[in-house]
Every structure is written in C-alpha cells, then in structure tokens.
Amino acid sequence: MSTEKNIPYKIYLEENEMPTQWYNVRADMKNKPAPLLNPGTLKPMTFEELRPVFCDELVRQELDNDTAYFDIPQEIQDFYKMYRPSPLVRAYFLEKALDTPAKIYYKFEGNNTSGSHKLNSAIAQAYYAKKQGLTGVTTETGAGQWGTALSMACSYFDLDCKVYMVKVSYEQKPFRREVMRTYGASVTPSPSETTEVGRRILAEHPGTSGSLGCAISEAVEAATSLDGYRYVLGSVLSQVLLHQSIIGLETKAALDKYDIKADIVIGCAGGGSNLGGLISPFVGQKIKGEADYRIIAVEPASCPSLTRGRYAYDFCDTGMICPLAKMYTLGSGFIPSANHAGGLRYHGMSSVVSQLYDDKLIEAVSVEQTEVFAAAEQFARVEGILPAPESSHAIRVAIDEALKCKETGEEKTIVFGLTGTGYFDMVAYGKYNDGEMTDYIPTDADLEPGFAGLPNVD
Q: Where is the Tryptophan synthase beta chain-like PALP domain (predicted)?
C-alpha cells in the first residue's frame, strides 16, 4: 500500500471535529432555485399553505434561500454520533486493480443499520415532528433505505411511521420491509387500495409496478387525512439537501485535514439528496470562485431526468396533489422500467441540483445497469464492501474517470459518494450474475407522453 503523504486507508474525524451546522448552498447561489408553486393558483407556496403537509420548522428550512448555516440541534448531534463521523476511504486497492495514477476516495455512508445516508435527514425530520407534538409521519420509499432510516428515527422518538413502498421494491426486497417493521413502521405496497389516489392509479394502470411518484401521492394523502400526522420526504426537497450537507462538510474537513484537493466529485443522482449533500461545500466554493472542481451527477439510463429531461415546472408526484417544482423532469406521468436501482427511479430532480446543472456548475452522465453492476462487483472484490446499486452508478463513473487518467498519465484526485450497502439488493445481484439483467433505455417516443403531461406554467 502506498504511503505518500502518509494518508491512511480510512480518514476519520474526531467527534469534536464533526460539523455542528448544516450548510445551505442556496444562500450562495447567484440564481436561486425556482419556488414551489401552488398547482391551483400557480403562485409561490406560502408557509401557511405548506403547514398542513410538512412540519413547521421543515417548512421554514424549505423556504429559506438566504441563511447559509443552520445550527444542528444537540439531540440530532448526539444521535449522529452513533454512526458519524463516517469514514472517507482512500481506495488504494481499487487504484492498484485499475493500475491508475489517479487518487480515489469514497465517503462511506453505509455504516448504520439503515444501510445508507438517508438517516442523516430522517433523524432531523423525526426530531422536528416530535418537537411539534405530532403523533406520527407518513412517507414513501423506493429501494427501502429511506423507509428503513425513517422507521429507525421514528422509533428513537416514539413516533408512528406509515411507509408506502414502491410495489416492485416491496416484492423484490422483503427483508428491507421486515427491517422497517422491526422498528415499528407499517409498510404498504404502492399503489394500494388504501387511498383514493392509489385506487385511481391502479384503475388507470392495472398491474403497475409502481413508482416513487405514486407512493408520494399516497403518503401525502394519508398525512393530510390523519390528525396529528405530517408527510416527510427522503430526497428532492431543499430541506433534505440541507440535512445531507453533513456528508459534504465531513468529506471536505477530512480532505482538508491532509491538504488533499479534489479534482472530480461524483455522486449518484435520483432525487438529489446524496448528490446535493456531498457536493454542497464544493459547489459553494466554486460559486464563490474559491476553488474549481468537476462535479458529476450520475443517473440511470432508464430514468435520465438530467440528461434527457426538460427543465420545467412539474408535479412532484404521479397523483398530481403535491406542489409544482421547477426541475429537470421526465414528466410526473413517466413510470420508469422496474430498474433495480429503486432509489433512482424518480421522474424529477431536486430544484437545487436542477438549477446548479442549468447554470453549468455541475455536469451529468447516464449509465446502463449492466455496466453499473460490473463496476459494483469489481469494487466489492477489491474494496470489501458490497455497494448498493444506487451508489454503484457513482462507482462506475469514478472507475471510468480513473481509467482516463491511466491513459493520460494525470494524477487526478477523484472523490465519490458511496451512499450505502447492497445487502438487501441480492435479487438484482443474482440477475446480474445469472446473465438475466437487461438494459432499458427509453426511446424519445417513450418519453413523449411524460413531457406531454407537463403542466402549462408560463
């Protein structure tokens, strides 16, 4: 193992070096993300309009484009210490296997029972719900990692937790479902017959495998029809990216500890929570002209909202009951193929990430599923972690960039987010190992119905 600069395999911060504030990149953005709109009036959503759906403090965070730093409440800091700071790992073994002069680092967020970065925001949202005196929360989950994280957080604060899980994941990942139930959550496959919007979607699309957009609609309906409940979301919203900034802040602090300057920062992109959290301090520096980085968002070719979507106002959910958000979108009616990276099967992208992309502060690429799993297995064999399919999108591009360095001889420093572990994704790994995995890339004609359904907002 190389020891130049004496950089350890794992860089850990001390507990007293952990960030005590979240960073709100919106405060430094020259072009702010467009506001959420009321679908009835097409006017920006107000605090009062959002209150029936979200916790009060979370609404304040959602609407605040100006406060750069938010103090992390002590109770949340204490909970974070169960699994944070998470390690920044120098991928010495992967570098050696690739025979590349590139230096590769990954921020590993899978070192908690939920298996992913999702717990960073789940505990914050549960804390604010408890502080407000609520009975419980409702949510959706794709791959199940968000639902798992939220069930853990609700258990900690003794809150009821109702999870609507995308039907294809509910069927493919029964063990993830059982972790949620172990932590006391109720789990319903979506779309379901338990809500009006679920029944409508099933009538229009009999036998559908579901989507995150469907599950969001059901969870919002459930929250707004139950006293003492609010809806919480694991990605996309600006408040979630704020909480997830803990990832990027720790990453930056760990790099700074050893005077390491990243050249390329890579994250997988579905709704934008991991990507937005990882890149926030780096893109903040870029906006302020303090440093320059190549920042790459990696999405599945089967659900390419950044690379092939349109930048427009759209519904965040399939049932069209949520506010309108301006984002790169494939249309709220787009139901992606049953891609195994369940956490990336969302039709739109965070309005913050969308604005950064539109301003050309970040770039985006889409990758095919079989190539992603090839990278996942290569990584698992040399670095000893079985990565989640979502995370493996970032691994694929990190490997590709490292191989480019091998060709050019450049010693670039590549940092990517390893968002979680893939131990509940063995159905997908099995399909890959058995040669049964296929790549689905929607045609332009496949995408057209989703675009045709975009709301008409001037």
A: 83-420
